[in-house]
Write a structure and sequence with these properties.
single chain
Length: 390
């Protein structure tokens, strides 16, 4: 069996990892000219953590763990308002690895044996004779038994097979930007803490990474779906008057700034014939949910497992959706609720969040906090009639 996977992000390379070990012929396509590094910090836990353990990658991921000792909310003078320290991370999950999104993808990517072609994506898709004929943007043609669209929120595969993005993408009312900069002095000042300054509808956070690199994340409320033409100018305008280290961080904005809408993706069906969607192209939960990387790794495992368990590809695709879609829906609902935690809309909500964290060690509050900051995904790794993955 041969598959073409579009997208070399976490979901795409994870699926390639599983299918090539099951004997499939795998080709991965990536529109970017090279493997995408960096990305914002993620907390990797839940079912994806367990799948990574089964892949034998946990030791490598733990070595890449960012040395973050706390999540700290500060005021405009940089003074601490509230904090969730390292010893309290069990409120999120029993096992958590904090690392840049790109480090997780690269760890899987470096263990691939499959061919990965950069600088190319799909241009036309045609189902023929129980398979798929794919014309690429460089004019070449590929044939496969299965085409997988793991190409993100703005999926080209989804557009070609299912329709325009506006039908499936739910805008959550925020724009976000992220970047890294090599700044030894500022990195040392921030230290091994994820520090955030929030006012109603806006947030700026930063944290020190390895080798004097500082990572920054911006989030602001916008009624406009369309992104501004000049992302840097928009950030400077939105965060004018922000104190703490914000002016210095804004002066370090790079040309290749990541800038996008905060969105979720919702489809009635994730597959059509021999084409299937994977990861953010069908189950994007948004950065508010904070569980997207784990679900991407999980979905790749579930899809590969169903493809191995059933000789009928279409049946396997249906079972994959049946297992993953309820989890994605529940996590998306969690993400929409979490907006008021990550980017509170009023000052009293900011005060309530800070008070909640200050009482985090009280047993009753601790239980409430864990439910507030981590979605319940159930045991999606359990396949009917099969023991769960441990």
């Amino acid at each position: 069996m041969r598959t073409v996977i579009v997208g070399a992000g976490i979901a795409g390379v994870s699926l390639a990892w599983w299918l090539e070990r099951a004997g499939w012929d795998v080709l991965v396509l990536e529109q970017a000219p090279a493997f995408r590094e960096g990305g914002y910090m993620i907390d990797f836990f839940g079912p994806g953590y367990r799948v990574a353990d089964r892949m034998g990658l946990l030791d490598e991921l733990k070595r890449l763990r960012a040395p973050i000792s706390s999540v700290t909310y500060v005021d405009h003078e940089g003074r601490r308002r509230s904090e969730l320290d390292e010893s309290s991370y069990d409120m999120i999950a029993d096992d958590v690895i904090s690392l840049p999104r790109g480090d997780l993808a690269r760890t899987v990517y470096e263990h691939l044996r499959s061919q990965v072609r950069f600088g190319v994506t799909v241009d036309q898709i045609e189902e023929i004779g129980g398979g798929v004929r794919v014309t690429l943007t460089d004019g070449s043609v590929e044939h496969a038994d299965l085409l997988v669209g793991a190409d993100g929120v703005h999926s080209r595969v989804r557009e070609l097979v299912f329709g325009r993005e506006e039908r499936f993408v739910r805008y959550l009312g925020y724009h976000t930007a992220a970047f890294t900069t090599d700044n030894a002095e500022l990195s040392a000042r921030i230290g091994p803490r994820y520090q955030m300054l929030t006012v109603p509808g806006r947030m700026m956070g930063c944290y020190a990474m390895r080798d004097s690199v500082l990572a920054a994340l911006f989030l602001y409320r916008s009624n406009e779906w369309d992104l501004p033409r000049d992302a840097g100018a928009a950030l400077r305008e939105e965060f004018a008057g922000f104190g703490w280290v914000t002016p210095e961080v804004l002066r370090a904005l790079p040309d290749d700034l990541y800038f996008d809408q905060v969105c979720q993706v919702e489809l009635d069906s994730w597959h059509e014939g021999r084409v299937v969607l994977l990861g953010d192209s069908c189950q994007a939960v948004s950065l508010f949910a904070g569980h997207g990387a784990s679900l991407a790794v999980t979905a790749a495992f579930v899809l590969a497992e169903e493809l191995q368990a059933d000789a009928e590809v279409e049946t396997a695709l249906g079972r994959y959706q049946d297992r993953m879609r309820p989890v994605a829906t529940k996590t998306q609902e969690f993400g929409r609720r979490f907006i008021e935690w990550m980017a509170p809309s009023t000052r009293w909500r900011i005060l309530a969040r800070d008070m909640f964290l200050k009482l985090a060690r009280v047993p009753v509050i601790k239980g409430m906090l864990r439910k507030s900051v981590s979605p319940d995904t159930g045991d999606v790794l359990v396949r009917p009639g099969v023991s769960p993955v441990r």
